Amino acid sequence: MALRTLFTKKALTRASGLGPLAAAAGDRGLGSGLGQARALTAATLPDLPYDYGALEPAISGDIMRLHHQKHHQAYVTNYNNALEQLEAAVSKGDNPAVVRLQGAIKFNGGGPFCCGFNKFLSHQPLDLLEQPQACKSKCKISILITYRTSFFLYFCFIKCWEGGGEPPHSALGWAIDTDFGSLEALVQKMNAEGAALQGSGWVWLALDKGSKKLSVETTANQDPLVTKGLHMVPLLGIDVWEHAYYLQYKNVRPDYLKNIWDVINWKYASEVYEKETA
Amino acid sequence: MAMALPLAYASSVVHPFEAGRLSFSTKATKHKKQIYQFRKVTKVLAYYGLTNPPYKLDALEPYMSRRTLELHWGNIHRGYVDSLNKQLPNSPFYGCTMEELIKTTFNNGNPLPEYNNAAEVWNHDFFWESMQPNGGRLPWGGVLDQIEKDFGSFSNFRDEFVHSAMKLFGSGWVWLVLKTNERRLSIVRTSNALCPLVWGDIPIISLDMWEHAYYLDYKDDVSKYVNNFMDHLISWHSATARMVRAEAFVNLGEPKIPVA
């Protein structure tokens, strides 16, 4: 359980250093640890699998560095703080505080986990999420949900010469053709929805595990994809918060959306797709 | 504030001076025809215009750079004005003042397509006027008295404003408003394009917390941006003028009459 070394059980760490890539990418999910532990676990900032400058010219190194070291780190820190406050509120029985903190957890939890590794918790048992639970477990479930909705920005991208932007083949490719008509149509749809999104949010290529259909969804702020459907699994996510593109593209979000397809990691999306539809 | 400026005329207008250029024989009939045409209702289409901030674009340096204003005002604000003008010809709300347009298109929480553009145009106009070069520091007179009455002290108000700005999730605005029902000043946080006008409150000062407002200058250091706004940019002159106008609508001076 390499992953459990990354988390502490009772005492929440305020680790602000970058977590080791190997541990974070370990396939043992959070579920086994969380299922046993009644306490809530903290998170640390995972490492990127590539250099900050590796995605140029689609995304500049400055943006990647700021996005990872400042924004993502801030979400991790605030998430840990919110978890600690939640633990205190739950143990005191302060229900209004518990409810209030859900907003902070959803926001900060969705944040890093939209921005990080999705290998992390890709095989969480869904039944854990579906069973009705007492309030305290529900809190953990919501945390689990935010963890799950995870970690896109970094595994979603890959250097051009390692196949970034290369269109998907096999199962995912056929599914895209069936559900959208063609890859170009999908790209156009995602770009249109991303450009039309008011304020801050994310654009997702989502797979509904129940119906096995692909769809394009948008979420506001850092809301996780599961807020659009409990069985939705993200295959790709594009951050359309202004901090993700403003330094380079200024206010021209459509240009950012057009160029980002050069570094999208379809290989990874295919893997997730095949695993979830198996 | 954005004003309606007549910018275009429909082509059915005949310029009256052209009536004199006709040949003598048919002059009478053609002249009559042209007068008749001239009496047709001329279709004047008026749109909203982009108003300039009340200072040069580099006047707020170093707290808000010229580049930020060029992009924020010149591209983003202008973009909202253009989008609104594109929507208006086909919209049933053509012809409203900006404030009427915002309240009507808000539609009690189910905003219509024009709402976002209209509200953002108004919000940005309000924001430029909420700032001035050499701004910040303290308000004076009635504004200061009202702040002290409603928040305890100016520093309480300042802390609460900064705190509210830091707590905003996502894109939005922070406002000092005069609440018409409660008859007091209050700090309000709104998301995306939401504007306190829709609740009938009267905004006094606003701060744009969308990332495009500060990202070029401050990157992710939001607290520095908000503190600089409070210390160096906020225009208490505008606030005073707005409060004076607001007091025409809200009775702040009503004494508390004790019930026997």
From TrEMBL, chain A:
MF terms (GO), sorted A to Z: manganese ion binding; superoxide dismutase activity
InterPro entries: Fe/Mn_Superoxide_Dismutase, Mn/Fe_SOD, Mn/Fe_SOD_BS, Mn/Fe_SOD_C, Mn/Fe_SOD_N, Mn/Fe_SOD_N_sf, SOD_C_sf
Subcellular localization(s) per the UniProt record: Mitochondrion matrix
Domain of life: Eukaryota
Keyword presence, Oxidoreductase: yes
Manganese/iron superoxide dismutase N-terminal domain location: 44-111
GO cellular component annotations of the record: mitochondrial matrix
Primary location recorded for the protein, binned into one broad class: mitochondrion
Catalytic activity annotation: 2 superoxide + 2 H(+) = H2O2 + O2
Needed cofactors: Mn(2+)
Stretches assigned to the Manganese/iron superoxide dismutase C-terminal domain: 169-271
Keywords linked to the UniProt accession: Manganese, Metal-binding, Mitochondrion, Oxidoreductase
Enzyme Commission number(s) of this protein: 1.15.1.1
Subunit structure of this chain's protein: Homotetramer.
Functional description taken from the UniProt entry: Destroys superoxide anion radicals which are normally produced within the cells and which are toxic to biological systems.
Name of protein: superoxide dismutase
Lineage: Eukaryota, Viridiplantae, Streptophyta, Embryophyta, Tracheophyta
TrEMBL record, chain B:
Catalytic activity: 2 superoxide + 2 H(+) = H2O2 + O2
EC number: 1.15.1.1
Cofactor: Fe cation
GO cellular component labels: chloroplast nucleoid
UniProt GO molecular function: metal ion binding; superoxide dismutase activity
Residues the record lists as binding Mn(2+): 72, 124, 208, 212
Protein name: Superoxide dismutase
